[in-house]
Amino acid sequence: MSGFFVSKYRLTVSMEISKKALIVEDNLILSVLYQNYLKQKVFKTVGEIRDGESAVKLVKTYDPDVVIMDIMLDGPMDGVEAAQEIRKFSDVPIIFITGNSDQRYVERAREIKNSKFMVKPISEEKLSKAVDLMLN
Fold this sequence. Notes:
Layout (H helix, E strand, L loop, with lengths): L2 E4 L4 E4 L4 E6 L3 H12 L3 E7 L2 H11 L3 E4 L9 H8 L7 E5 L4 H8 L4 E5 L4 H12 L1
Parallel strand pairs: 3-4, 3-5, 5-6, 6-7
Antiparallel strand pairs: 1-2
């Protein structure tokens, strides 16, 4: 339920978190940045993880509304492989964000249904538009 509080000095609006996001990023600073971007869109981050195996498990556990996925991750499974595993049981929208624009990775990522590919660095506005596009 949304609500608001009015005081002599400020108006504070509280919004109910209505959507869940999973962030799969091996760079902690970028993970926090994406989490902050998504808070502006009333998302709760249900996981901030660094490896593909954990991504697959957390999608099963939390059924997020969107997954923000780096391609180069810690561990043996990259982001595209994790997405392929996720597609075996979920059609959750996946937004790939990577600093690697190697054509092999681009082509592999584009084969994943219900996904979008973006190259770092990205702005809050670009991520916001990508999330809106994927959820509508």
